Amino acid sequence: MEIEITKKVNMADNDGLSSYLNHAAQQHHDAFGVFYDFLKENKPARILEIGTALGGFTQFLNIALKDLNIPAKILTYDIHRMTWYTELIENGIDVRVENVFGENFESVNQEVIDFIKGDGITIVLCDGGYKKGEFNLLSNYIKPGDYILAHDYIDTNENFENNYKDKIWNWHEISDEAIKDACERNGLVPHNKEIFDKVVWVCRKKV
Which CATH code of 3.40.50.150, 2.40.30.200, 3.40.910.10, 3.40.640.10 fits the domain covering 5-206? Predict the structure, then answer.
């Protein structure tokens, strides 16, 4: 599949919007290719996305799955309803507008847990308003062989300030220190760190 990027991010203008086939996404433009290869490699049974936002990245994931002939289900949540979510639903994406997390991210709705625990590989994408809380909670429920990822990640603040800010990405919402305990508790190991670092995502696999 040709990854047709129609708009690239531009940190010189503090512009973090990219687009694939004019579907806007708050992603580094190289993320599309990285995730296409990731889906091709792992062939998930389902994807849980926290933070539908502009919906462009969700659309891309759906298009990539179809191109790869992977019959995976996408379930995506946001707390704000956007008019263009209708298009996502028409394309077969399960879009739900609700807050599924309990106070202080100490619990999550059972339907989310049941979705994660379905047969086959589950990929969990944490890209909502509190990525640390999302990752640390949802990582408790993934199965061996599953993956959990979070956006706006740079491993350390020093690395962010020296190598990312005003160059690659200007948002740093999660770090290694923030997820250290969850990774140790749940047996999560880095997956393709160098590749995902370039598009400011952390990717961990449960072993």
Answer: 3.40.50.150
